[in-house]
Automatic annotation (TrEMBL), chain B:
InterPro entries (UniProt xref): 2Fe-2S-bd (IPR002888), 2Fe-2S-bd_dom_sf (IPR036884), 2Fe-2S_ferredoxin-like_sf (IPR036010), 2Fe-2S_ferredoxin-type (IPR001041), 2Fe2S_fd_BS (IPR006058), Beta-grasp_dom_sf (IPR012675), Diverse_Oxidoreductases (IPR051452)
Keywords: 2Fe-2S, Iron, Iron-sulfur, Metal-binding, Oxidoreductase
One GO MF term: 2 iron, 2 sulfur cluster binding
PANTHER family in alphabetical order: OXIDOREDUCTASE WITH IRON-SULFUR SUBUNIT (PTHR44379)
One Pfam family here: Fer2_2
Signal sequence, renumbered to the chain: none
Matches recorded under CDD domains: fer2
2Fe-2S ferredoxin-type domain mapped to chain residues: 1-77
Protein name: (2Fe-2S)-binding domain-containing protein
Positions of transmembrane segments: none
Organism, scientific name: Celeribacter baekdonensis B30
Domain of life: Bacteria
Amino acid sequence: MEIPQQSLISVTRVSQALDLLTRLGETATVMAGGTWVMREARERTFISLAEIPDLTDITLDDQVLVVGAMATHQDICNAVIGAPDLAALATAAGKSATPAIRRMATLGGNLCTRDFHSADLAPALLALNAKVTLETSSGRETLSLEDYLNTPVDRPHILHHVTVPRTSRRSAHVRLMQRQAGDYPLAVVSLSAAIHPDGTLHDLRIAVGSVEERARRWHALEALCDDQKMTSDSIRAHAAARASQDFVGRDAVDGQGWYRLRVLPALVAQAVSDISLTAQGA
Amino acid sequence: MVLTLMINGDPVPYHGDPRRSLLEVLRDDLHLTGAKDVCGEGFCGACIVQIDGVPKVSCLLPVGRLAGAEITTIEGVSNSETLTAVQKAFLEYDVVQCGMCFPGMVLSMTHFMAENPSPTRAELKSAMTGNICRCTGYERIIDALLSLGSNGLGPVEEVRP
Ligand SMILES: Cc1cc2nc3c(=O)[nH]c(=O)nc-3n(C[C@H](O)[C@H](O)[C@H](O)COP(=O)(O)OP(=O)(O)OC[C@H]3O[C@@H](n4cnc5c(N)ncnc54)[C@H](O)[C@@H]3O)c2cc1C
Ligand code: FES
Ligand code: FES
């Protein structure tokens, strides 16, 4: 394929994007919504995915949610709002950034921008046990979002879509910011679990975002609290005991690492309170 | 790259780097200075324009992606003889101070009011996230929008008082 001598190339097939990425290497970048690359990578050649059909598709049925990488935060919020198991994702997509940015920034941009440390969709999808499907020059690969975030895929790839299994559980997403809205979150907790009427949490998944460079699961806290009766106070106490052992808070202009750790227990407690309230039909 | 931008109903030829932001092209090439260049990072909303009727930040939109899109800037929402209902309410409630935020505010809130003709105060506050106003304290802007009442946006344009 001839490489056009242009600084913004619109491709219509994923294979074209991969081909260009392979040939142009570090001099090019994928452009999805553009809200990161327009700020951070203006000197590179943009390979725009906007003209690829199907990448904005979202399908939701009783079994599974599938979201194309070019779906925007707003598209995702509109699609999942009202589903109790996907409440964490609806909040992450519907409350992050600002209305104008939510109409532009995409799922793929949120999960693939490794230098962006405050992604909301990443912890929400970790708590929902999402899988990502990538296109690479050697074919299609599906892996857990957790593996994708933990182990950088250095080969050229396009994140094609994300799959979320649906279960009869509840989820919540709690974010702390300096102001009520519009900033990056200082710390994020996403949580999902099935709640027994006596307050026991089953199959608990907790993900933390914005505290370290990349969102990740809080496995140690999950192990302590899974299959236990938990109130927001009891889980807060467990989280307070573990936070500084399990995370190294990130210092940045918007907040110090110690502060991000200090607020984590309260965010976990709030998330448990939120899922308990929705379970009671509040 | 050569392309045609459709700005406020007029075709405008563009020849240049497709990665330049729409904001740069509007202000520096076309001298449409209504959209303001403030943060350049998507946070403040001073540069908001409508793309196919939907408010977006023009500082993060590369022009190369806008061929075929209808771009509406503040210069295109009314002419020197007329004001839209939102502009008129802002004038009546005397909410404009330095004016840096207002082009973006008008374009964002006009879209929001069209979709939500009878919003609550809280809904207006969340819709305004991303349109930072350093002068007014927001409450009067909200009062002005609420004054549109159930008439919503009413007639698109009204004669300037
Ligand atoms: C003012 C502002 C506030 C924000 N606040 C928040 C917030 O509170 N929470 C939040 O979660 N986000 C927030 N964001 C969004 C976030 O910062 C990123 O801008 C956004 O997630 C990037 O998405 P994009 O689609 O614009 O990506 P782009 O800028 O187009 O791309 C970013 C990177 O992702 C890679 N990429 C994109 N799509 C793919 C794909 N399908 N496959 C492989 N690689 C890909 C590109 O190579 C590129 O390096 C905010 C953004 C702004 C501007
Ligand atoms: S200048 Fe575009 S959002 Fe601030
Ligand atoms: S009137 Fe000055 S910023 Fe809003």
